[in-house]
Hints:
Radius of gyration: 30 Å
Strand content: 15-25%
Order of helices and strands: HHHEEEEE
Strand order of the largest sheet: 3-2-1-4-5
Largest sheet: 5 strands, antiparallel
Number of domains: 1
Distance between the termini: 101 Å
Number of strands: 5
Number of helices: 3
Amino acid sequence: MPLKKKEYPRQSIKKGALGGMEEGQITVFAGLFFTLFFAVVLSGYLQMEMIRSSSGYLEDALAASGLAAALIDVREYGSSHVLRIRDAEESYEQYCACLKANLGLDENWECKNKRLISGRVTLENYTIYNVTEDQVEYCRLDGGGQEWHSGSLGQVFAPNGQVVERTGTYGEISYPFLGLWGLTMQARKGKLVDIVGEN
């Protein structure tokens, strides 16, 4: 018995089947949806790139301020070849002055242009580390006082988790930044700066 192919008549889409939309309206609606989706994704990507570049800029400013504040005792280095930061208070004041200059902050620790930092910058932590042979002496300063501690080399960690191996400084700031769609978020950035002398 031979099989016959059964043919069906072509059907057309009725106007009421798509909720009252015509064929051209569906294309416009889909195009608008994908354009809006692309704009949101692009906006998020640009925000992430802005955060990444600002992070690099802030890290450079913290490193430059830390290097400027590492006021080495030249006499001790000349006689014993040991690098020591000579005066913790003076180092703290130098760090604050350099940080203000490097970030473009005014007397109230606020940024003049509000694009990168949208409010007051706070110095959360400033610590100096003096390393001699197998000992680490460190001092945390907060503008009002000093806390001195000591530990063994390899056992002392900076607040960002790095092992302290050389004389240096650590500074950490917190600041508000303007995020995606005008949202203000609080951020923190810290940097350990090592001072390396040649033997």
